[in-house]
Amino acid sequence: SKGGEDSIWEGKFISHELPFPVPVKNLQYSGALPEFGSLPTDFPADWSVKTWVLFTSPHPFTWTGQLKASEEAKGLIQHCRSSVVDFPLHIEDPKSCTDLRCAFQQNLVYWLHPSLPWLSLFPRIGAERKMAGKNNPWAQDEELQQVLMGEWSLSFSSLYNLLRAKLCPYFYFCTYQFTVLFRAAAIAGSDVPTAVISPTTRGLREAMKDEGITFSMPLLEDGRNGKTKKSETTDLVTQIPNVEAEEKNSDVQKEPAGSSEEDDDDDGATWLKYMGVQDNVRKLNSMSIKLRKEHNLVQMDHKPESAVLVKGLHTFTLLNFLINNKSIVAVAGPQAGLPPTLLAPVAFRGASMQTLKARSINIKAQHPSGMKESHSLEITGPIMPHAIHSLTLMLKSAQKGNFAANFHAHEPTSVFNIPLKLEHQEDKDHSSGELSNYGLHPETLTQLMHQPTIGKSSIKHIEMDNYKYTWKL
Prior knowledge:
Elements: E1 11-18, E2 50-57, H1 69-80, H2 98-107, E3 109-113, H3 128-131, H4 142-164, E4 170-174, E5 179-183, E6 194-198, H5 202-210, H6 232-239, H7 243-254, H8 261-275, H9 278-300, E7 308-311, H10 314-324, E8 341-344, E9 352-355, E10 357-367, E11 370-383, H11 385-398, E12 402-409, H12 432-436, H13 442-449, E13 461-465, E14 468-472
Parallel strand pairs: 1-10
Antiparallel strand pairs: 2-11, 2-12, 3-8, 3-9, 4-5, 4-8, 5-6, 6-7, 10-11, 12-13, 13-14
């Protein structure tokens, strides 16, 4: 086990005055909080990557304390073997439950590439300040950059192959400018692999089109009927008014029958034709419309609305595009020459096993009856969706169905909660044996298989009371 100052397990008393949690409504219901018996026993999947989670409970978290060497080792091997550990509804003495402590270690593990211990490789967007002044010998060494990119390409290909083979449920691809969430078939309600990229720029989208990658933009909708368009071009046509059509409609509405304006227009057109500039004027009007469309594109860049969705075999084309696209690596600044970060819940070629940092603390929270001691568990690191759900399964048993959690998400990843708006597809039967290869607890897998439902937001707070959930965004 780990000890001393380097230990990720800490236990100490901290006194803070925290506001008493306000009762939360379940998003599935409107109006007043529903009757207790109708509250759900689970919460929706949240595809944003959390960087900090604070669990609180009236029951202590002493069972998460210093692990024995054997417990840590067993937890790591359980993770590598994708062992499924089930617990009873209620654990009388969590601290003495070895299986619980091992499972806790198991659920803290994640896989990362590249691994540079002196650099924090997530998040990558906006990380320049944290990386400033850190040693990066590859920044001015092209040969070293080629070695890093060569190893990274092998790792990326390995991870994608695991996803295609239904051995990895999802993974994150993180650059200094954008993030990609790759999801396997049967995940998020899709029967084919999908990839969501956000944020994007017009230049990136045009480059993807040039490579033959077909994509849609789920957040750009037709304002009239709410239908999502299948291509960026179609979206822009629906969103940008047709100048000529508007002018035509305006004339129809404003001019009474028998008006002489039509004669004036005919005279104007005849004069332009006589002067030989009629075609030039038409070209100018077309150019004006095109410039307005391009301006709309630029305004959308770097925003959640610029998110694009790639499906099926086009995700493989996207893989090759990303491997060969030099713009995914910064050429200057603290991140210069550093390959994108790959985050996954399962092992892949060249990956480094990492663990989230956890510590149990005690706090004092403000309650209506006065200050009351509350027990807390703080977890930091790139906390992926499966880890959140797996941890809550354990806490449900260990904390006797009574706990709350506050989350802080890496905001650019919140857009991954948008519905995929897939075309109608026939339900396919996925065998339990096939799905078990994803390496997730069956209940966690069930949650992640559902279509995202919470839009561009992320869950900020969940609360379990007597084994029933409420949450808020």
